[in-house]
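TEACHING EXERCISE
Course module: macromolecular assemblies
Task: Read the component lines below, then compare them to the predicted structure of the full complex.
Student: A.B.
Group: 4
Components provided:
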Amino acid sequence: MVLGPIDYTIIIVYLIGTVAFGAYIGRKIKSGKDYFLAGRSLPWWAIGMSLVVSDIGAVDMVGIAGSAYLYGIVLGNYDWLGSVPVMIIGAFLFIPMFWKRKVATIPEWLGARYNSSVQTTSALIWGIYMPISLGIILYASAVMLNVLLDLNPKILVVSDEKAIVENIAHATSVKKYDFIYSDTVDDAVQKANDRNPVIIFIDNRISTSADFQKLFQNIPFVYFSKEEVSPSWGESNMHRAREPDWNIFYSIVLMGLIIGVYTFLGGLRAVVYTDVIQCIVMLGGSLFVLFFGIYKLGGVTEFVDIIGAMGERTKDHFSLVLPVDTKTPHPWSGILFGLGIVLANAYWIGNQAIVQRSLGARSMADAKASYIFGALLKILIPFAMVIPGIVALAHNPAIADADKAMATLIKTIMPTGLLGIFFAAFLAGLMSSVDTYLNSAATVWTTDLYKKFIRPVADDTHYLFIGRLFTVVFILVAIYVARFATRFESIYDLAQTLLSFFQGPSLAIIVLGVLWKRATGPGALAGLIGGVAFSSLLMWVNNNATIPLFQVSEPFLYVALWSFMLSLMLTIVVSLCTKQEPDEKLKGLVYRYD
Amino acid sequence: MIKILTITFSISVSIADTIANFFRGPGQFLRDILMSIDLTIAKLLFILYFLAIAYWVYNLPKSEVTMDDVKSGKEIDLRPFALFAMGSMIIIYLIF
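Instructor-supplied answer key:
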């Protein structure tokens, strides 16, 4: 994607504006309560927008459109079924229970409802997961940044056979590089000058006589024959490549520092209010891409006709409900039971990073209204994130890497100047996810671990200092983990899988805690630990058995569902075998029991 | 060393296979039931889920669905907004 001066101006103004805004808001921070809960002063509309934008990371902006390019509107389930109903349930049932208790974190509420062991176990799970996850989000966002801005190092392949590019891509490292193809020397010289590749591979059938050294100046080149292309060949020759102009680590550090500064200064208040701006920019930018993309196709009817004419490939592209044996990872059974009943509830009701902003609401009514407003906004999200992926398919049906669908669409339809707006929207998505986890990790470590085990009694300004200290530590950890993640790309999938391990069990003990007076501390602890162990067992069996246990490639929806069920059962059985919590303790913690 | 690793690997595979076989029977049974459900019925289940939530919201007591606006002090009813959201879901799932 080629950005013009106007685009860069928009991006720089946006970034400086965000940091300045965060710093401005940070002036009012005087205590830990201000920092972690924005002094309980947040209005419903700000929280609602923040909830929505925090749920959509930069990875989602590119990845969801990419998946929609492949599988169609079924991805919309993650926002519609996966958010709207559960946000309504959360608004009237769970969020008021948390807010009423005046807690700063979900583990803190669990401590009040059950006991200290449940609080600590839950805090440790979130406290460890969030800083690691931060690094992974940063890394994954930097990867997407490179894809979107075309920053990946380029490899130029000169051959009369285009299929050889794929072999070389596998022989080197597909994800780290972009490949450019030329079938003549003249074209290769032109492309080498324009795209500045890190290395050039020249098929010795093309030419071995031209003076390439002169033609390609400082770019190293290697002659190859089709037969010798293999991973060991790729590895040995890639050592000869020159250093790329842009290192992915620069993106990681740059974004980490910008987000770190405004989160450090402004705490939750800065996170939420910068999210408001990010929500407007992101929704505006994405909806603009949608309308402009459909307009360029001739209108909605033409768009639907083009997709319909693609035959078997797109027969389910406008279906939200796909068969159990679908080849996509989104069968209706997993979507309805795994996503709708477990993961969605776990995310909107039990995810500390999400729930925290509603705990900072200025009143219980605002806390409820924020979730309703968020649900209404969520109805729009698939139009902004999913359908553009299908629009990209209508414009360019032959994109090899689906993750590049959005970037290609934008490059195809957007004029210079508007590219800057979309890129700012992308940065907004990136920043909103990272700031959320950063602030939340600092809150859990300060409130549930530091305050509980190291210094239970101190002035509130001391906890402000500790919260800020954790913010600095975690952004540095995130940058370090992100660097580490560049060597282990599957770490992102691992983090997603880890999340599904404990989301089901966490939800089970929250649901029973709110709805069932008889649930006890030992029951919840057994349910939490047993559920996490069961998820791990299921995943281990699935990965190690000769025939996988689950018949879908990414079974996280089913793992979450079964671990939730087991946690429910364990909590109920152990609770019934242990002494009931005193009625006095349960007042205000169980639904309609005041 | 390689021998130990090979033995460990084969033991873990056989343990995993044993556990997988234990779960496979009930799992396949459930899968068969789900497979036998027609897609139209499946879609109906989604819509019933939305209807159930809408019904629950509709029946909530007034005190749980109203809020006082901080600035004007006026009472705002959240129920219509929640019902609108669920109604939108039903329409969307009927269309797609």
